[in-house]
Amino acid sequence: MLSLKSLVELQVHRSLSEYITALVWSPVGNRLAIASGAGEVVLWQDFQETILQAANGASIDALGFSGEGAVVGGSRASRGGDTLAAVC
C-alpha cells in the first residue's frame, strides 16, 4: 500500500505537462490513475509509471476503473457534451 510519503516522492519524480484534473484509486490492488489538463493519463502501480495516453490538448476531466479494477475510462468535455474516452 502506498503511504503519503510515497505519493509525495512519486510527484517529485514525475510531473505532468499540465495540472491534475482527475485521479482515482483502483478498487482492487494498488493502482492510481491520474489525468491532466493536457489530456495525459498515467497509471501508477507498484511504484512503476505507465503512460496510457500522451498529451493531446484535450483535458480529461473524470476517470474511473471497472469494478474489477482492470480497465480505466475517462471523460472529457466537448462542445456537444461529455465524451467517453476509454484509455485501458
From TrEMBL:
InterPro entries: WD40/YVTN_repeat-like_dom_sf, WD40_repeat_dom_sf, WD40_rpt. Signal peptide: none annotated. This is Anaphase-promoting complex subunit 4 WD40 domain-containing protein.
